[in-house]
Amino acid sequence: MSLTIRAEGLVADVVAQVEAADAHGDVWQAEAVRAFILAELDAWPTGPGAPNGVLVEASGYHSDTSRNVTIMIRPQRIGAPED
Length: 83
Known about the structure:
alpha+beta; 3 strands; three-stranded antiparallel β-sheet; elongated; 2 helices
């Protein structure tokens, strides 16, 4: 069984996309990955100079003999930097 989550854009938009992402396969694994991503986005820096966008990619697979998850959360600047 496997899972895939991909979202990109402003942080608030990515939160909504991650919350709405379908959980396929191992629902427990998908919900654990979703919870981790949402916790990281909730703690996202918002001070001066902080990136206002993010790219999230997560994938996972498990079988009777293995289990793995890869999560990438990369900051992005959307639009011109604010002064």
